[in-house]
Each structure stands twice: as structure tokens, then as C-alpha cells.
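Something for you to look into today, if you have time. Just paste the record in under my message, thanks.
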Amino acid sequence: MSVTKLFNRSYRDHVRDGETLRLLNVIILSAAVGMFLFTGIGGAAFTGYASALGAGEFTFGLISALPVLASLLQLPVSFLVQKNGKYKRFFLVGGAIQRTSWIVIAFIPYLFPVGQSRIWPLTVLVTLAAMGGAFVTITHMSLMGSAVPMDVRGRYITTRQRVCTAASLIAGLGIAFVLDYAPGFLGYTIVFAAGGIAGLADILMYIPHSFSSIPKNPEGPAFLKGVKACFTSKKMRGWLAFWVCWSFTVNLSAPFFGKYAIDKLSLSYISMILFGQIAANVLTLLVISRWGVFLDRYGGSALMMISATLSTVFISVWLFAVPGSVWPLFLFNFFGGIFWCANEACMVNMQFSHTPDTGRPVALAVYAVLTSVATASAFICGGALLEGFAPVMEHLDRTILGTPFDHYKLVFIGTMILRFAVIGVFLPRVWNEKGTTIRGAYAKALGDARSRLRYEVSRLRWFHKR
């Protein structure tokens, strides 16, 4: 293979079958359209809407936990889908239920007048949407795992991420504009109704395409064998152990960075958007395709070692934060935009490379259940630690390098230590799909970099001679 081909960031040049290429393009396009729904339901818009409908803190926490609880449904869904073999049917029906539920949610203020409880219909519809989403996740990830060629998975996954990031950025700005200028419930209705329609369009794009590339295995006992294999197979056991521990340590502090910036640093929402979401998204758009090339060449474990380590290091910028300072938020998201996208690419790639073709739905369901439990546990533990340490740190009233050292910073330091422990203990045991150790992958990367440097130098000499 030529040196230039090694660094080619396009997946299209490597896919020869026309039907497969069309399906891969649809998966990217549909994901971009669907971001207009998921940006709305995953951000401040849904928080404000739930509060306007009368949800208190406990109720909102319960509603927010429903998608996590719905992930537990993926185990029976994987059994049902794999036994029945009707992947496309379950995908379309589950997707239609999920998206339509959000369209109905948009009109709750008009369907249930003032004086009637609006929380129960919201809770029921969010639950219904989450249940439909369980079918979509299992079938869609199985389709991607079978359709995306192994040698360009990194390029493809990062291309999809780049397009989705751009769509999310546009959707976020559009949602902010609508909510600012549409009074009362009208803005929320526009956001969620339009998002639900975009989500339906996302699902309907798959109607002309076949799901036949997913290997069929209708035997019932294969489900139990698949669950058992997740814990007996060395390859899958190492993969699951790392991601479960990583999910816990990441989410121990992840939900609280924004809260810290608002409550303790007194930053405005405009600053949060400009120096947070937009800064991260712009950097993701610039670098993610290069991570895709690295992933295809040297494997997920090698890339994860770099991205996980450096994304952990930059948590330290919060230790120097003082009220009114926006630079910790900017630096955290600036460098986070470089490395978080690599973490996500590794996560998706390993879900494909570390699971068997015939038992992938079951393995993906086990992964979803375990990581969701770890995430939910981390949310609870993180909140409990912050509340527990708050009076202690307030009583101590310590400063480090001239900045106040509060309970948030104490938890951030603890998170960094735990993340480094997970990286050092569990990541080296994760199988690298490129057939080399992490050290061997870096040696190969260094050799390729030298070859590329020699190639560029020879080009410069050739131009100079001319």
C-alpha cells in the first residue's frame, strides 16, 4: 500500500460494493437528520420544558433516569430480535414509536389544560419513547457492525461523528433561537414537534434498504450462550471490564462540570454555549477524521490510551478556576473537543470489533446494561460525594495556589486518580483488533510517520529541482 493511501481519510475509496456504499451513506445522513431531535431532548430544552410542565427536582431526576433504565430492556430485546430475525421490522416499528412519542410530548400543554396533571403523560410518553429506542439501538448497531467494512471502520465512524457534530451545532443554535423568540410553551412545541418529524424522517430513510447483512441465528439457546460468552471470552471480558469501569469513573464527575461553572464560577449560559459546546464541536470537526485514520491503522486500544490519558489530564484546569474566570471552561472544552471524540470513536469501534457477528445483539445488550448501571451508579455516587464533602470543605476553607479549594475540586481530583487507575490496570488488557500490543502499535505508528516524513521531503526536493 502506498504512503498516501495510509493517510487517506475517506472511507468511500475502500468500499467497492455500490449497495453497501449507499447504505453507509444513508446511515450517516439519517444520523445527521436525527440530531435535530436528540439535540433537543438531550439538552437544556427538555430541562426547561419539564420544569415548565411542573416537574420538581426529584421528578425530573426520575424522568431523566428513564432512558438509562430502558437500556436494561435491551437484553430481552436482543433475545427477541435475534430469535425472530426481523431486524428491519423491529427497527422501523421501534423507531416510529420513539419518534412519534416526542411529537405527542410537544403538544402536552394543549392536550392537558391547566389544572390537570401534565407530569404523568410526560412520564408515560418518555418511557414509551425509551422503550422504542431500545429496539432501535440493538438493531441499528447490529446493522452497522455487519455493514461497515473492518478496514475502514475508524474512518467511517469518525466521518459519521463529524457530520453529526456539525448537525448538532446547527440544531443547538436553531433551538436556542426558537426558545428565545417564541413565547411560553410555543417554543418548546416547535422544538419537539420539529425534532420528532426529523426523527421520523431519519427512520424512514431505511425503508428502501435491506438488513440482510446481519447474520441470522434464530436458535433460542444462542442467547444464553451469548451472555455467557461475554464473561468467559477473554477478548470480550477485557473489553467489558474496561468500559464498565471507565463509564463509572467518567460519569462520577462529568455531569457536574457544567453545574460547577454555573453555580460556583457564575458563568452565563452564553459563555457556556460559546466556550463549551461550540468550542468542543469546532475542534471535533477539525481533528476527528485524523483519529479515524489512526484507529484503522493501529487499533482502538492504542488510540484509547492516548485519548483517555490526555482527556483526563485536562481535568486539572478546573483546579485553577476562580469565580468569573471563563478560561478553564474554554481550555477544558478546547482540548476535550480533540480527545473526547477519539474516546467515542474507540467506544463504537470496539462494540463492533470485540463482539461476534452472529451474537452481536446479545453482546451489545450486555454492554449497554452494564455500562448503564455503572453510569447511573456514578451519577448517584458523584452527587452523594459532593453533598457529603461540601460542609467539610467549607469548614476547612483551604486555598491552593491562590484559588479556593472546594468540594467540587476535591471530587475532580479523585476522579482523575480513578481514571488513571482504570487506564493503567484495565486498558492494557483490552484486545487490540490490529493484532499488536499497544507498544507494538506505537512502534508501527512511529515507523509510518518516518515513512511519511521521508515521502514529503522527497517531494520537496523534487519540486526544488524543477
